[in-house]
Amino acid sequence: MYELSRVRLHAVGPKGARYQDVTLDLRCGPSGQPSAASVLFLENGGGKTVLVRLIFSVILPGRRQIVGTSNSKMLEKFVLASDVAHVALEWRDTRTGDLLVTGKASEWRGHVVSADSNRLTERWYTFRPTEALDLGTLPFTQDGRIVSLAGFHERLDEADKADSALQVRWVDRRGEWTEHLDSLRLDPELFSYQRKMNAGEGEAADAFTFKTDEAFVDWLLTAIIPDEEPQAFGEVVTGYAAQLASRGELIAERDFVQGTLDCLGPLVLAAGEKAAAAAIHREALARGERLVVSMAAREGEEAERHRILSERHSDVEVRERGLDAEARRLNSVVLELNRLVAKLRWDTAVVERKRLESERDCWARRPPPMAGLHAPKLKQASYKMTYELRATKSALRSGKPRERTPRSNRRRRVLAPLKARSEPLSPLGCSRIATTWPRPLTLQTKQPLRPRRESPTRWRETPN
Question: Given CB 3.0 to 4.6 Å as the disulfide criterion, which of 51, 181, 314, 415 pairs with 186?
């Protein structure tokens, strides 16, 4: 349990009774233990209530917790525009002797007093005093000038970083500050009873006066039970009570809702069918739009393709007309060439005809040159010549030269007159008949031959 040891007030209070820098020491004896009781004697209007309000503002935050008045803006009047108001309380643990400092700092935003209470910035802090920092060495000023709230906050943080034993803790919200005091074993509820006892003159006795037993029980339960649990239970009970009170109405409402649902069933089905039909309709419209778009795109493609094909068709027609003209020209050229070739052939044929007619006339006027030879001998000579040619081919194929026999020599002597002529023979055995005529034809033999007519149809060779 903690007891109040010292109080320090700096730059706070009404204009007529300011606390510039005042420290109230409530200790007694050399041990530094807080006194069991302290009495403050002042005349009426001397500032006793103001002092109590400032001390209680640290433990009981909130404008509704102000001691001795219902005016919620009383504390705002204790902070001037140029002030950074500080109220710091030093506590001592009765069992361990550990010290704890709790404080509150207030400052107007922009150092401008306003009717809006939200512009008054309030912050609470706690720390464990050490040799480096305690209640008396709090940096409220520097070089005779008041340190701003932000500067004071920064200096405490620097001191905490330099000495972790300080355990500096800052709180900005009132509910969080109350929970923090509970964790430090400073019960704000106990100070709430003291606030009620100091509500006015002689209020200490009235604070514990109860007219009925229920009032005493309520006070006792309020004192020993936290407000959150009964409040939650009361809310649950209130909710059940309200539901039970409205049971009849709820049953009637249930029946009405059930009947309404039964009646709305077909409507719901119809609405579902309508929604499905609407979805199908939208899908059909979307498909139709896609089809129209695709058909329009296809129409454009086909139109472009038709244009390209039309141009190609025009080009083909032009080329076809050109090719037709070229074909007709080439046909006329071919016909002319054929005509010229035919004319040349005709002229050649006419020349050949004249030559053949002249040769025919020549043959008609003189018998063929081989007529003096007997037919059997001529045939025999042809057979021998054929045999000789075949033998020569066989020798050439085998690669061996064919031996000459006397018979073959004899055959060579017989065929010598015919082979001795270097000029080509005509089909009838006559050489250059047209050019050598009328020179007499003679055969190169050992004995000259002369033709002798033995029969009207046969000639044979006989010596002269």
Answer: 181
Contact 7/55 with Cβ under 8 angstroms?
Answer: yes
* Mean pLDDT for the stretch of residues 305-327: 92
* Residue 34 CB coordination number (10 Å): 19
Phi-psi region of 432 (alpha: psi -120 to 50; beta: other; left: phi over 0): left
Three state DSSP letters for the chain: CEEEEEEEEEEECCCCCCEEEEEEECEECCCCEECCCCCCCCCCCCCHHHHHHHHHHHHCCCHHHCCCCCCCCCHHHHCCCCCCEEEEEEEEECCCCCEEEEEEEEEEHHHCCCCCHHHEEEEEEEECCCCCCCCCCCCCEECCEECCHHHHHHHHHHHHHHCHHHCCEEECCHHHHHHHHHHCCCCHHHHHHHHHHCCCCCHHHHCCCCCCHHHHHHHHHHHHCCCHHHHHHHHHHHHHHHHHHCHHHHHHHHHHHHHHHHHHHHHHHHHHHHHHHHHHHHHHHHHHHHHHHHHHHHHHHHHHHHHHHHHHHHHHHHHHHHHHHHHHHHHHHHHHHHHHHHHHHHHHHHHHHHHHHHHHHHHHHCCCHHHHCCHHHHHHHHHHHHHHHHHHHHHHHHCCCCCCCHHHHHHHHHHHHHHCCCCCCCCCCCCCHHHHCCCCCCCCCCCCEEEEECCCCCEEEEEC
Contact 431, 441 (CB under 8 A): no
Q: What residues are paired with 169 via a beta bridge?
A: 126
d(CA 151, CA 140): 9
- 2-209: CATH, from 3.40.50.2300, 3.40.1140.10, 3.40.50.980, 3.40.50.1820: 3.40.1140.10
Per-residue pLDDT tens digits for 330-365: 999 999 999 999 999 899 988 988 988 888 888 777
Q: Residue 233's pLDDT is what? A: 76
Cis peptide before 139 (omega within 30 of 0): no
CA dihedral 55, 88, 118, 196 (to 10 degrees): -20
402-457: pLDDT as tens digits:
555 555 554 454 444 444 444 444 444 443 433 434 444 443 444 444 444 444 44
**Where do the structural domains in the chain lie, given as residue ranges?**
2-209, 372-463
d(CA 10, CA 8): 7
The two tokens of residue 130 are 């050490």
Is 100 within 8 Å of 128 (Cβ atoms)?
Answer: yes
Closest CA to 53 of 219, 236, 198, 232: 198
